[in-house]
């Protein structure tokens, strides 16, 4: 299992429409390519959206599936680009603690 921590700093006023887009479109589109969501959170001030996405495979398989998702018709069919709501992103690969 490979996991990635995704931290998005949101543009002002963007949290609510972004979360709706994420729930209704992004998560289902990613599921088509084998991704699952471990959890999602917002910071108390509403400035950041944090989630963990996982894939049942090694890092190379994760990266291949991630590319397939971004190049997919499902991604192209999103009603709005998530980038319209996100000011900045911090993506970090995670390793389990034994």
TrEMBL record:
Q: Which Pfam families match?
A: NIPSNAP
Q: Which organism is it from?
A: Paraconexibacter sp. AEG42_29
Q: Which InterPro entries match?
A: Dimeric_a/b-barrel, NIPSNAP
NIPSNAP domain mapped to chain residues: 4-98
What name does the UniProt record give this protein?
NIPSNAP domain-containing protein
């Amino acid at each position: 299992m490979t996991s990635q921590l995704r931290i998005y700093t949101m543009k002002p006023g963007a949290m609510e429409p972004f979360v709706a887009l994420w729930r209704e479109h992004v998560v289902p589109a990613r599921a088509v390519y084998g991704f699952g969501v471990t959890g999602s959170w917002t910071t108390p001030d509403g400035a950041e959206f944090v989630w963990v996405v996982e894939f049942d495979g090694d890092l190379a398989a994760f990266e291949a599936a991630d590319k397939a998702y971004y190049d997919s018709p499902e991604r192209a069919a999103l009603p709005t680009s998530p980038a319209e709501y996100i000011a900045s992103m911090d993506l970090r690969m995670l390793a389990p603690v034994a």
